[in-house]
Specification:
heterodimer, A: alpha/beta, Rossmann fold, seven-stranded mixed sheet, 13 helices, B: alpha/beta, Pyruvate-ferredoxin Oxidoreductase, domain 3
Chain lengths: 387, 182
């Protein structure tokens, strides 16, 4: 077992990327991702990591370099946030459709305008439909462990897809906390070498990213959709093996004190930790409240979500982004659609909270439960907003 | 769980103070978190950083609103930052000041426990710069008994390398000179 160190989560994440012995890092600095790529550039500059660090002129170029390097068979890393992901978006779709395994760490941050450097999930939601595997992390250990998991799953020939690991900007990126490091031996036993099915090579010519006529485009999309859904057993296998190695068990949907719960909270990312405290406080007060943590966002764990939610009377979804003009925020919409055909389903309440870096305390979460239970179904609230 | 809020000015190292305390706690087997007040800080502007230390994993990801300990790195913040805000009645205010406790209590509107040290003078004398972040850790250790002085040696050495000894010396001077009142 590796040792536990008090370290900034960004630096721990960069150290994990270094332990994966990546070949290419292409990134453009943007708050709050900066410390991750700065540390990686130091690792390369001081010879601790034998990789090509490409200091690109934009995020669009960063993802373009990543596509080229992954297509050539190199283990590839990038990281960005908010406006950077927006500028990158064109190539984000292409990376997934071309089935190129790339790891991107997104330091989740609100999209402008107004200009905000602070956390929410609007950047991740913007590329929700791009066909990447998308995982949301609760704490620093979770981020660190998922660097290894993401490479193992994404590069698996049964999957061959890029993976986006989401870590809340500032709330995780800039926090010093205990992280248990992996040893080189642990990484070696968990993460095999990247052996892609096809690579760009002059001796064995293949075409990647070809023109798609109307006769083939829909089939291509179906194949991509199936590939993403079929990554589930490999994701589970990766989490099982990780548990054997570290004792930490991750799942697509994780339950916290849900036994006998009449009201469930559902959250993603670091909000889950704070919500678990609110659940403890409400349980102590005799209230039947539990928490469902949605770790895996894509592929959407439909069966697991249905199983977790069907027994509750009320469900309060904590959405950390807003879909302007929509009936509900993105996670609530997805959950509502998943539950619509279930014979037994909870009343679903949408609470948009913590957008643009607004702080969320355990007391806020209890308030959101109270407000939801007083209100009617299908109403979407922005919690704490001033009129 | 002990919750702390650090007040400083951009460039004085309030965030570093919080980080060193958290790292010392983690090194000694406790759980801890430290984080800045998440803003685009400018040199000289008032800044805030937070730390939590506990015997069990820390789950709360919100800012600290009712600290057990407030650490004030810069004496000029008494007038503008309202550092005693939210401080628990049985908490302690650890402050860098050359004033006496009664004057400070009046200026702060705060009646509770105070740990007082002239950290600017110590830092100038020992480090050669009026940067008080490491010095103030000594006063914090004396005021709370939460950590030992020795537990800071590892984090200081990792962070400061060659200049660690001077910073450790300043921390020890502050631990010796700090007076805890009330």
């Amino acid at each position: 077992m590796g040792k536990k160190v008090g370290i900034e989560v960004s630096i721990a994440a960069a150290e994990a990327v270094g332990l994966c012995d990546v070949d290419v890092v292409a990134a453009y600095p943007i708050t709050p991702q900066t410390h991750i790529v700065e540390h990686l550039s130091e690792l390369v500059a001081n010879g601790r990591l034998d990789a090509e660090f490409v200091p690109v002129e934009s995020e669009h170029s960063a993802m373009s370099v990543c596509c080229g390097s992954a297509a050539a068979g190199a283990r590839t890393f990038t990281s960005t946030a908010a406006q950077g992901l927006a500028l990158m978006a064109e190539i984000v779709y292409i990376a997934a459709s071309m089935r190129l395994p790339i790891l991107m760490l997104v330091a989740n941050r609100a999209l402008s305008a107004p200009l905000s450097i602070w956390n929410d999930h609007s950047d991740a939601m913007m590329v929700r439909d791009s066909g990447w595997i998308q995982i949301f992390c609760e704490n620093g250990q979770d981020v660190y462990d998922h660097i290894f998991h993401a490479y193992r799953v994404g590069e698996d020939p049964r999957v061959s897809l890029p993976v986006m690991v989401n870590m809340d900007g500032f709330i995780l990126t800039h926090v010093i906390e205990p992280v248990e490091f992996w040893t080189k031996e642990m990484v070696g036993s968990y993460l095999p070498r990247f052996r892609p099915l096809n690579t760009l090579h002059p001796d064995k010519v293949v075409t990647m990213g070809a023109f798609g006529m109307p006769e083939i485009y829909a089939e291509q999309k179906m194949a991509h959709d199936q590939a993403l859904k079929n990554s589930m057993p490999v994701l589970l296998e990766g989490w099982d093996e990780l548990a054997k190695l570290t004792g930490r068990k991750y799942e697509p949907v994780e339950l916290y004190r849900t036994e006998g719960a009449e009201t469930l909270l559902l959250a993603m990312g670091s909000l889950c930790e704070t919500a678990s405290l609110a659940v403890d406080q409400m349980r102590e007060a005799g209230r039947k409240v539990g928490l469902v943590k949605l770790r895996l966002w894509r592929p959407f764990p439909l069966a697991e979500v249905r199983k977790a939610l069907s027994g509750a009377k009320d469900l309060v979804v904590l959405d950390r982004s807003i879909s302007v003009g929509a009936a509900n925020a993105p996670v609530t919409s997805e959950i509502s659609a998943a539950m619509y055909h279930e014979p037994q389903r909870p009343r679903i309440h949408c609470m948009i909270a913590g957008i643009g870096g607004r702080d969320v305390t355990p007391e806020d979460i209890t308030n959101m439960v109270d407000l939801s239970l007083k209100g009617t179904e299908q109403e979407c609230h922005i919690y704490g907003v001033r009129g | 769980m002990i919750e702390m809020r650090f007040h400083g000015r951009g460039g004085q190292g309030a965030v570093t103070s919080a980080e060193l305390v958290a790292q010392a706690a983690i090194d000694t087997g406790k759980y801890a978190t430290a984080f800045p007040s998440f803003g685009p800080e400018r040199r000289g502007a008032p800044v805030v950083a937070f730390a939590r230390v506990a015997d069990e994993p820390i789950r709360v990801r919100a800012k600290v609103y009712s600290p057990d300990v407030v650490i004030v790195l810069d004496p000029t913040l008494v007038q503008i930052a309202n550092p005693a805000q939210g401080l628990k009645s049985d908490g302690v205010l650890v402050i860098n000041s050359s004033h006496d406790a009664d004057t400070l209590r009046r200026d702060l509107g705060y009646q509770g426990k105070i740990a007082l040290v002239d950290a600017s003078r110590i830092a100038r004398e020992v480090i050669g710069l009026p940067i008080t972040n490491t010095t103030m850790v000594g006063a914090l250790v004396k005021a709370t008994n939460m950590l030992s002085l020795e537990s800071l040696e590892g984090p200081f050495n990792r962070r400061f390398g060659k200049i660690a000894p001077r910073n450790l010396a300043a921390m020890k001077r502050a631990w010796e000179e700090a007076t805890v009142i009330g």
